[in-house]
Structures are given as structure tokens and as C-alpha cells.
Amino acid sequence: MQIGILGTGVVGQTLAAALAEKGHTVTIGTRDPAETMARETAKPPARVSFRDWQRSNPTVKLATFADAVRSADVAINATSGVGAMSALEDAGAEALGETILIDASNPLDFSKGMPPTLSVCNTDSLGEQLQKAFPRVRLVKTLNTITASLMVNPGAVNEGDHTLFLCGNDADAKETVKRWLGEWFGWREIVDLGDVTASRGMEMYLPLWLRTWGAVGSPMFNVKIVR
Amino acid sequence: MQIGILGTGVVGQTLAAALAEKGHTVTIGTRDPAETMARETAKPPARVSFRDWQRSNPTVKLATFADAVRSADVAINATSGVGAMSALEDAGAEALGETILIDASNPLDFSKGMPPTLSVCNTDSLGEQLQKAFPRVRLVKTLNTITASLMVNPGAVNEGDHTLFLCGNDADAKETVKRWLGEWFGWREIVDLGDVTASRGMEMYLPLWLRTWGAVGSPMFNVKIVR
Lengths: 227, 227
Known about the structure:
By secondary structure, chain A is an alpha/beta fold. The first copy, chain A, has helices at residues 10-21, 33-38, 50-56, 65-70, 81-91, 93-96, 126-133, 148-151, 171-185, 199-204, 206-216; strands at 2-6, 25-30, 61-64, 74-77, 100-103, 108-109, 117-118, 138-142, 163-167, 189-192, 222-226.
């Protein structure tokens, strides 16, 4: 598959490396590829600069946001929440077309210090805002409730027995993404929460996730829905 | 133990019945006991009027908010979120004293239709507001992330193997509440999320909880933190 990933940070790097390893053709999109490659230091929480990371992952291409998504079978939004809308605007509605967009982003706002707050919540969500701004895109919100390395390796926790959430307006797109997440990474239990307004709950879970991280001492955890 | 419960709704009734059955002396507090007893119809989601409920639970006393908490070993806030502050104000700081207050409430606002929104979130929470308004009270936020019948019977789901969250500023009060929740209801896994500001995450989880209820078709579920 041709996969376009928006965002050069930890989430984008982690997804790109895992998908390239499976043999997919992965292009990471960024605003200014030359600027990204010229950067010598890592942007935390990334540990290495993108340039150094790419040396270890030479099959992953770097391109503009538009070029990364234009011929992709699926686009993945792995930007920071505050950068998501401008990244999609930069890619443009024409290049995005009717692509399936996996939205893994969270509207975390670190500008007021720790813990971060959400830049949108309660009566709206980032997922809804992106879907509204790009109505032809088939947005599927998922993966945003776990840390990056667990996204691509659910088996690292409880032998893979835990729950991923997913929502979106397009039933076919959701079924397709569910299947991909199983094939790509081995996700087994994916709970469909309904239309894109469920993004509110999935994003508003982040403050609990962050405090639970603090309590258990590691981001390598997830919730399992038990009945 | 002497237990004062604020709120005559489903949560108050469920907790009161379970605690009375264990032999505790339970008093439910309400604004106007005579008015509560005169009401002939149930207030949804309660199925029966309080009067009818009390006929089946004759050992549970009904009193004013102040009388319910004045000599209680522990008070439990089981009011609706929108009624929580006025219930505590009605009880009064003098009657509340330095009591441990288990805050099981959620700031759900149903006034704008379904799904409910939160009347406070992101940069503040109901738990924090209550603690700030009554600084001597030792508030422990817990039980708010599950349905009432599961609060008192965790064994009804996954043989009791799932996670309850808890937070608050007073470490001794939290340890005491942890012990009580084990003794009263059999809770085994209680994750301490830190100070009362973790109420934000615990309350902001509600939109995800409501959508998960919709997806699994029953409120009899919970999350288990797996690592």
C-alpha cells in the first residue's frame, strides 16, 4: 500500500517505521522538507533529529504534505493537535480528495504549562473540526488513546488483549481501517463508538490517560473494556 | 459506621441499600425531607419514587443534608453534578467539618439535550470546585466512572477484575477510602491518580464512558488498566 503520514514527530516516525517494515511504501509529509532535513536537533519527545532517524529508515520518503497524501491509499494524521488543521490545509482538499484519513492526533495545548489542556473539547473536538473542514475526506479517529510504540505493537501489553476505540461518519472506511489495524499491527479488539462526534470522548480521555501514566509510571499501558 | 449520603437518586439509593445491608447506619440527605417523601412519582433514571424505595429499605433514614452529614463517619456525594455545590452549601461547612467526603458526582449537563456536556472541564473540575469551596473537608473523588450498580458490586463484571480510579489531596483519607471500598463492596484494584486536580481526567472520561455504553449496549462494563 501507499501510505502518507502527516507529521515528522514520534508518532509519525513510529508508524512510518512499522509500516515500512511491513513492506508498505511510506511517505512522511511535512511543511518544508528541506527545513525538516536541515534540522540538526531532535524535537522532544523525539529522541533523534528527523534527518538522523531517516538514515536508519531509508525507505521512508519525505515530501510536502500535499505530495505525501496525493497518491496515497490512506493518509494518517500524526501531527500534534495544534498543528493538525494547518497541516491538512497545507496538504489541501484537492490532494486529500476522498482519501481515508486515520486521525491519531490529540488537541493537547502545552502552551499554558503542564499538565496540558485541550484546545477544543466538550461541545466540539479536533476530529469533528477536521472532518467539517474537509468534508470529502473519510476521517476515522483512532489510535489517539495510546502511546506511539503501543499503536504499532499492541502485543507489548497484556498479550494484545486490550481495547482500541474508533469513530467516524463513514461505515465502510471504519471497517477498512479496522481490518488494516489488524493486518498492520495485530489489533484484535476495536470498539466502534459511532459517528465522528465520539471524537469528543476519545480526546477528552487524554487527561485521564496522562494521570494514569503518572500513576503506573509508564505510558506502556492501555484500558481493556471488561463486561 | 455512620454514613451520610447526599442525594436521593439512583446512585444514592444504590449505595444506601448496599451499605445498610452490610449493617451500617445510613442516612440519606435531601434538601427538604417532607417534600421528598411527598413525591409520588420516580425521578428518572430512578424507577420508583423515593417514598416507595424507602418502604423496601426501612432502615435507611431520610434527613436534611446537614443532619445526614453532621455525625457521619463519612459523607458520600451522590447528587447530580449540577446539584452538588448547592447540596454541600445546604449541608454547610459547620456540619461537614473535616469529614471524609467521597465525591461520586459528575458535572453532567443535560439541559442542552443528549449527549450531555460537562458544566465544568479542562481547566477545572467539579471535584476541585467542591474541595475549594469546603477546604476543611477531606474530599476523595472516586466511583464516578462506573454505573451505580457496579459501584456496590464490582464482582458483577469480569469477576471484579477491573479498575477504579481515585484522587484527592489528603493521603490518609485516600488510604481510608481505599480500605472502605474493599471492605464494603470488594473493590480490589484502585489506582490513585494523585491530588484533586486529577478530577479533571476522571470527569472528562464521562463522554467516552457514555459512548462506550452505547457501543457495548449496557452500562455494566468498566475499564481495566493493563500493562
